[in-house]
Amino acid sequence: MSTGLHIGEDGLARPAWASVHDDLREYYDTEWGMPVRDERGVFERLVLEGFQSGLSWATILRRREGFRRAFAHFDVDAVAAFGPADVDRLLADEGIIRHRGKIEATLGNARAAIALRDQEGPGTTLADLVWSFRPARTPIPATAAEIPTTSPESVALAKDLKRRGFRFVGPTTMFALMEALGVVDTHLLGSHRRGTSGVWANDGTPVAEGNTPS
């Protein structure tokens, strides 16, 4: 049975999706699954995962700088202040995916993120909320077929975010978000990135603070 891993010219093992193009390989090697804990960073990934729905990740990744320019580098307060004229501007912006529903959802999600701060009190942000759904263990897939697309935690996170007014936050999209942020680690066993986040050990157990991953 194939594991789904590909050995690159550099001798490193990566999943098939990260072995096709240089930009995907660089994203996998340097960013995907590494912990992101700041509000702006989590909001950016939330927006990009929402826009990715129904499309390939490569399509989104190659427009990432366009998204950053269009959405004020994902400053939550700035995006929350966007109005109808900004929606029209974004619908004409060829640097992003011009989908009215997703654009309007991004503005609404920024406002929901601000409301979250007010509801939960100082020091609680969208990032805090997402990371609060970190599981006790992470998957340890040996093959691509063993990588889940949802989890009880992603279902619960999606339900919580929807209750708070967020959109385009279904369980599958939220699981992909959790993977991207390092909240879970679904790197295949044998991948050179498995257990490198500093959050999860190679065997799926949490890394104690101050320790290095095994």
From TrEMBL:
<dbReference type="InterPro" id="IPR052891">
    <property type="entry name" value="DNA-3mA_glycosylase"/>
</dbReference>
<keyword id="KW-0862">Zinc</keyword>
<protein>
    <submittedName>
        <fullName>3-methyladenine DNA glycosylase</fullName>
    </submittedName>
</protein>
<keyword id="KW-0479">Metal-binding</keyword>
<feature type="binding site">
    <location>
        <position position="187"/>
    </location>
    <ligand>
        <name>Zn(2+)</name>
    </ligand>
</feature>
<dbReference type="InterPro" id="IPR005019">
    <property type="entry name" value="Adenine_glyco"/>
</dbReference>
<dbReference type="InterPro" id="IPR011257">
    <property type="entry name" value="DNA_glycosylase"/>
</dbReference>
<dbReference type="GO" id="GO:0006284">
    <property type="term" value="P:base-excision repair"/>
</dbReference>
<feature type="region of interest" description="Disordered">
    <location>
        <begin position="194"/>
        <end position="214"/>
    </location>
</feature>
<dbReference type="Pfam" id="PF03352">
    <property type="entry name" value="Adenine_glyco"/>
</dbReference>
<dbReference type="GO" id="GO:0008725">
    <property type="term" value="F:DNA-3-methyladenine glycosylase activity"/>
</dbReference>
<dbReference type="GO" id="GO:0046872">
    <property type="term" value="F:metal ion binding"/>
</dbReference>
